[in-house]
Specification:
With 116 residues, this protein is α+β, with helices and mostly antiparallel strands. It has three helices and three strands. The longest helix has 19 residues. The protein is elongated, with a radius of gyration of 18 Å.
């Protein structure tokens, strides 16, 4: 059975989070949590929060055992961009794009659900 958790509109550039998400795919939940806990990056905090939410969803909503869960997918999708401007010399401006991302984590216990 699969369980999903999402964090939307995270104030983080997607490119800065994708490499950490790729490292987690296919790992047991305990190992994925270790990766996020011991990384000093901002992305690790946000991905770890989403991972803990997915674990709580699996425990409480789907009644799954946490020791058997693995990370099936950890996807960082691009969100909207806030367009801002910075002042420059001689009264000019420079556009700045402040990027956001959506974090999606899918956990599975390895068994397929019979929803046919």
């Amino acid at each position: 059975m699969e369980v999903t958790a999402r964090t939307k509109f995270a104030r983080l550039s997607p490119s800065k989070a994708r490499d950490l998400a790729r490292k987690m795919q296919g790992l047991p939940v305990a190992d994925a949590l270790k990766i996020t806990d011991f990384s000093a990056r901002k992305a690790a905090g946000l991905i770890g929060k989403t991972l803990k939410s997915a674990i709580a969803n699996a425990e409480n909503n789907a009644k799954l055992a946490v020791d058997e869960l693995t990370v099936k997918e950890a996807v960082i999708e691009e969100g909207p961009r806030m367009k801002r401007y910075w002042s420059r010399a001689r009264g000019g401006i420079r556009p700045v794009k402040k990027r956001m991302c959506h974090i999606k984590i899918v956990l599975t216990d390895g068994q397929e659900s019979d929803a046919a």
